[in-house]
Amino acid sequence: MEKRRILVVGSSNTDMVIQVQKFPVPGETILGGKFFMNPGGKGANQAVAASRLGGLVTFIGKIGDDIFGKQAVQLLEDEGINVDFVGADREQPSGVAMITVDASGENSIVVAPGSNSTLLPADFDRSGEEINGCDIVLMQLEIPIKTVEYIAKKVTALDKKVILNPAPAARLSDDLLKALSIITPNETEAELLTGIKVRDEASTRQAALKLKGKGVDIVIITLGKNGAFVLADDFTGQIPAPVVNAVDTTAAGDTFNGALAVGLSEGNTIQDAVQFACNAASISVMRLGAQSSIPSRNEL
Ligand code: RIB
């Protein structure tokens, strides 16, 4: 099987995680449980997921001139990811995320983007020939939106597939939507993008149709434990996720997106690629942390 190369452009963070029984309310101090640090960031997580699941991956990101950033890049390299085009910023610290995870496995995340916010179109252009060697470009929204827009338009013109995971939730321009091959919002993100509250099959379909009407080729709305809804020219319907016992949903979406890119890079149908992604994400929620929870191909 000839695999196509995946280029992930996005954030890298160091996650500081505390487990809690329940989230504090504003003004409240609570005693939590276990603390741990873990490599994270939606971009880096998706690159790790794609690599562990069998993809050929290059990551483009921006770290700060500090130990967190250096460690994060070393770990990506250890995963077999090409990190030749990860830049460093002298002014901003590397990205950090403060995460609490409650007893039901839900999380609450605050990100200080730091150097991720200095990843600019010129950083992407520096990767030169590498862009031509990639067939699928995967991005998220923890880097400047102008960079995402620039890359989407540029690589679409080169006839490559652009997958955008619109997380964290943000409004997107019609121009950007038109340049996307695939968009993968969760229910909250789909609501922000369409104004339609995603709560049942009819409203999910309606939201997907609205996004497709803006020019996105394939819309995939992820539905947590209920799998994902797909709207494509050759397939429309809901793909189920295996039933599992969730302990931490952090990076489930990232695992889904990395796996989706791998499924497509191996030439699978959209239906099979989304099933592969649902299966991978369901394993990640059974374990704590971001990159620490992402499964390998053998586990699937
Ligand atoms: O999607 C999970 C990720 O969101 C965490 O790893 C955290 O760093 C934030 O980027």
Structural features:
300 residues, UDP-N-acetylmuramoyl-L-alanine:D-glutamate ligase, 8-stranded mixed sheet, binds alpha-D-ribofuranose
Given the structure, what is the number of helices? 10
- State the fourth-level CATH superfamily: Ribokinase
Count the beta strands.
14
- Mean pLDDT across all amino acids: 96
SS-based structural class? alpha/beta
Distance between termini? 19 Å
Query: Order of helices and strands, N to C?
Result: EEEHEEHEEEHHEHEHEHHEEEHH
Helical proportion, percent range: 25-40%
Please indicate the count of domains: 1
Uncertain residue ranges: none
What is the CATH class designation?
Answer: Alpha Beta
CATH fold-level label: UDP-N-acetylmuramoyl-L-alanine:D-glutamate ligase
Compile the SSE list and pairings.
Elements: E1 5-9, E2 13-19, E3 35-40, H1 42-52, E4 56-60, E5 62-64, H2 67-78, E6 87-89, E7 95-101, E8 107-112, H3 121-125, H4 129-133, E9 136-139, H5 145-157, E10 161-164, H6 174-178, E11 182-183, H7 187-194, H8 201-213, E12 218-222, E13 228-231, E14 236-239, H9 252-265, H10 270-284
Parallel strand pairs: 1-4, 1-9, 2-7, 5-6, 9-10, 10-11, 11-12
Antiparallel strand pairs: 2-3, 7-8, 12-13, 13-14
Bound molecules: alpha-D-ribofuranose (RIB).
Alpha-D-ribofuranose (RIB) binds near residues 15, 42, 109 and 254.
Question: Overview of this structure, please?
Answer:
α1 (42-52) packs across α9, α7 (187-194) packs across α8 and α9 (252-265) runs antiparallel to α10. β5, α2 (67-78) and β6 (87-89) form a beta-alpha-beta unit. This protein has helices spanning 42-52, 67-78, 121-125, 129-133, 145-157, 174-178, 187-194, 201-213, 252-265, 270-284, and strands spanning 5-9, 13-19, 35-40, 56-60, 62-64, 87-89, 95-101, 107-112, 136-139, 161-164, 182-183, 218-222, 228-231, 236-239. It is globular. The chain has an 8-stranded mixed beta sheet with strand order 4-1-9-10-11-12-13-14, sandwiched between helices. The longest helix has 15 residues, at 270-284. The mean pLDDT is 96. It has 300 residues and is of the alpha/beta class. Helices cover 34% and strands 22% of the residues. The protein has 10 helices and 14 strands. It has one domain (5-10, 41-93, 116-292): UDP-N-acetylmuramoyl-L-alanine:D-glutamate ligase (3-Layer(aba) Sandwich), CATH 3.40.1190. The protein binds alpha-D-ribofuranose.
